[in-house]
Amino acid sequence: MNITMYVINAILLAVREAASEALRAAIERSAELARSGLADARQAVGALRGERLPTVDQLTSLVDDFRRDTGADATLRVDGDSRPLSAEASLALFRGAQEALTNIARYAPGALTAVTVTYRADRTVVTIEDHVSGPQTTTLSGAGGGHGLTAMRERAARVGGTARAGPT
Fold it and tell me: Which is nearest to 154 in space by CA: 36, 44, 63, 25?
């Protein structure tokens, strides 16, 4: 069982046992820290082995995996001519898309999802949109620690970019 399944089980148990919102948030934040630590450790080991870090070029696989794992209708579109990006910027775009898709799976399961990579002269933009039809209910709604968007913004800022989230 991977860490995500442990987290989901812990959150569901907390909901079933009527645990406080603070406890549920603490569980989610602990899970985020554990996932982040594991990802950092994997990246470090991979770098020592000479493995390549994820890049924006791997978004096709990410979207395919998201579609397969969630059953959501998800598409990927690339606008403009692809060009090389710095390893840090490419990793930041990939991780930002990964976090956004995780948020969609958690808070808008089944939503029509569109991922767009736009190569402009002065920047590269990755946009992730979810379009929900009908009322959404999930036992995990509101269970997150609320740090995913902050992490996306911090990662983008470290490479000179920005990240925004909100209604489309």
Answer: 36
